[in-house]
Design brief:
Shape: elongated
Protein name: Small RNA 2'-O-methyltransferase
Largest sheet: 8 strands, mixed
Structural class: alpha/beta
Organism: Trametes cubensis
Strand content: 15-25%
Distance between the termini: 59 Å
Number of strands: 15
CATH architecture of the largest domain: 3-Layer(aba) Sandwich
Keywords: Magnesium, Metal-binding, Methyltransferase, RNA-binding, RNA-mediated gene silencing, S-adenosyl-L-methionine, Transferase
Catalytic activity: small RNA 3'-end nucleotide + S-adenosyl-L-methionine = small RNA 3'-end 2'-O-methylnucleotide + S-adenosyl-L-homocysteine + H(+)
Radius of gyration: 34 Å
Number of helices: 14
Cofactor: Mg(2+)
CATH topology of the largest domain: Rossmann fold
Oligomer: single chain
Helix content: 25-40%
Length: about 475
């Protein structure tokens, strides 16, 4: 590790941390593209895959044959459509994910991170266990990315974050042909450290030796790298050149910042399909895979959906349930999201939040709108009871029945009742006598004190402060 004695690196802080920014960039593009299938190459301990295992709060909009569009003349639905679009914005619905890495130790964590959780189990117990509305399959593979796995062919999205800089030269040469040519996903998301940004860690006039890091292990450059296992760190220009070189496989790219990123989108069409297939044949990638052997499947996890998924109750039944819940909660208005996360409501809607919106709109006595914020911006969707139904809400002074069969103690310590200081006790003769909360019976008190005035302690004495007359043995 290199570091100069007469110069030090400048402090550089990333907020959020750089790995979180990379993950956010990946997830943002996945949301924008509506990705449902993901292969994480170099998945490590499965941090990204673990995120993708979280179930979506609701299903994607139902098809028209399930929930027909309302006639525009019958009910104004512009607000409903706006609310639905906002609710579905940015929601991922992954149904098939996979991870590949060469490190068995890291993959053991990935296997655990993608495992199905039993609701309320162990350290994963939550105050509210989310309901899964769509199936998810997660597979963890061990092996080199230079080896072709037939299961990965045609996957929708491949992610490779901070991986290519760790690849030996021969594996790096196989990266583009395998990823872009053989697997030909619709989207490829890559990140790699920017050597250009490394200058930010030292003063402009600082020598190279001022950098704290590791020399280029290949001896091709005099650069100091951020990690001991990095085989290279590209400048912005070098990464752009590499991206353009691999573009022969039919991709469009976008570049930028400290962790350099590239999003490649497949060019569609029969011509491009034939070009990719021809290049794969010419490079002999599939033949090399047969010689080297395939990947090892370490785990397959199936996350089944709720049994009520896509099986909603009639709209009027859902409307009645909403009214009963609002009366139970003693709320004349309640945010739609809060109402949804009552599992009984979500289950009745079969996982379709659009079903809840329609049920509220069509039920006589309920209305749906947006509650404006103080800033003037439109707020979240709110369900309201019409005035005709608000009378069903019990008054605030009326106590709710107990949640259990236990009967609470009727005595009130703060009662002004004059008889509150009198207690009826049973005697041996079977009748009751009065006992007040007044002065204690002195003789009884002395007898009790004599009986129970034995000092006790745990273990051996710790000092003179322990004035005990007996010990626990």
């Amino acid at each position: 590790m290199c570091q100069s004695d007469d110069a030090q690196e400048l402090p550089v802080t990333f907020r959020p941390e750089l790995y979180l920014q990379r993950r956010g960039w990946v997830l943002d593009i996945m949301r924008r593209e509506g990705i449902t299938e993901v292969l994480d190459i170099g998945c490590g301990e499965g941090e990204l895959l673990s995120c993708l295992c979280n179930p979506a709060p609701w299903l994607a909009p139902p098809p028209p044959d399930v929930l027909p569009t309302i006639d525009a003349d019958a009910t104004p639905t512009s607000t409903d459509g706006e609310i639905a679009r906002e609710l579905h914005k940015g929601i991922l619905h992954p149904v098939r994910i996979a991870g590949l890495d060469v490190s068995r130790a890291d993959l053991e964590y990935a296997v655990e991170a993608t495992r199905r959780r039993t609701p309320g189990s162990g350290a994963y117990a939550l105050w509210h266990d989310p309901v899964r509305w769509e199936p998810l399959e997660a597979k963890i593979w061990e092996g080199s990315l230079a080896v072709v796995n037939p299961e990965f062919v045609g996957v929708e999205c491949i992610v490779s974050t901070e991986v290519i800089e760790h690849l030996p030269e021969d594996v790096l040469q196989a990266f583009a042909p395998t990823i872009f040519g053989v697997y030909h996903p619709r989207i490829v998301l890559l990140t790699t450290p920017s050597y250009t940004f490394n200058a930010r860690f030292t003063a402009p006039d600082a020598p190279i030796a001022a950098r704290s890091g590791w020399p280029d292990p290949t001896k091709r450059t005099a650069r100091i790298f951020r990690h001991h296992d990095h085989k290279f760190e590209w400048t912005v220009e070098e990464f752009a050149q590499w991206s353009q070189e691999v573009d022969e496989w039919g991709r469009d790219e976008a570049l930028g910042w400290a962790s350099q990123v590239a999003a490649f989108k497949r060019r569609e069409g029969r011509e491009w399909e034939e070009r990719r297939a021809k290049q794969v044949d010419e490079l002999g990638i599939l033949e090399r895979t047969t010689v080297q052997g395939g990947h090892q499947l370490l785990a397959t996890h199936h996350h089944p959906p709720h049994e009520a998924a896509r099986r909603p109750q009639p709209l009027d039944v859902v409307g009645e349930l909403v009214v009963s819940k609002m009366i139970q909660f003693r709320e004349a208005s309640i945010p739609l999201r809060e109402l949804w996360f009552d599992d009984a409501v979500a289950v009745a809607c079969g996982g379709w939040v659009d079903w809840l919106i329609r049920a509220v709109r069509q039920y006589d006595g309920l209305c749906l709108g947006k509650e404006a914020l103080i800033s003037g911006d439109p707020g979240e969707a709110v369900v309201r009871l019409e005035p005709s139904l608000q009378d069903l809400i019990p008054p605030a002074s009326q106590a709710s029945p107990p949640d259990t069969d236990e009967v609470g103690d009727p005595w009130n310590a703060f009662s002004d009742d004059d008889d509150a200081d009198e207690v009826r006790v049973a005697t041996d003769e079977g009748h009751e006598e009065e006992s007040g909360w007044g002065e204690p019976d002195v003789e009884w008190d002395r007898e009790a004190a004599a009986k129970f005035s034995v000092d006790t302690r745990w273990g051996d004495p710790q000092g003179d402060d322990w004035s005990c007359s007996s010990e626990w043995t």
